[in-house]
Amino acid sequence: MIDIKLSPETLNLESCNVFVADPAAGAIVNFIGTVRNETKKQKVLRLEFEAYEKMALSEMKKIANQALEKFDIKKIALHHRTGVLDISEIPVIISVSSAHRKAAFLACEFIIDTLKQSVPIWKKEFLENGEYWVSATP
After folding, report:
1. How confident is the model at residue 29 (pLDDT cuts 50, 70, 90)?
2. Which helix (H) or strand (E) segment is 85 a member of?
């Protein structure tokens, strides 16, 4: 019911959708985070993601299980990338299946918001005027 991945490899939306597909699901909702070319009116050159892997995977699994308990959903794929990513690359994919769309939308929002608050994955922005860790803690 849950597929968790933390990897330096390119993420694959199709594999997430294949995993969450379910005959009882009338909806599959995806959240795809992409690297944008600007932040706070500054040009972004690239991003770098680092993680405390063992703890990050454990927290990601915990979040997915919370979503399964909280929302009427079938399956979840939660994949996050590490390493250096260029503009338009994908650092995170969340795919959720449910019988009805509302539960899947709510679950995706819950998962990404909770992930950003509690999972030890850190983002470094490389901008035209320097390099900055977005936050010192998750």
Report:
1. very high
2. strand 83-86
Domain span including residue 45: 2-133
Q: 138 lies in a domain? A: no
Q: How far is CA 12 from CA 19, 41, 72, 120, 126, in A?
A: 11, 30, 25, 22, 24
Task: Measure CA 34 to chain center.
Answer: 10
Q: Would you say the pTM of this structure is higher than 0.90?
A: yes
Distances (CA, A) of 2 to 17, 75, 123: 12, 6, 25
**pLDDT tens-place string over residues 9-18:** 999 999 999 9
Q: What is the CATH number of the domain that holds 112?
A: 3.90.1170.40
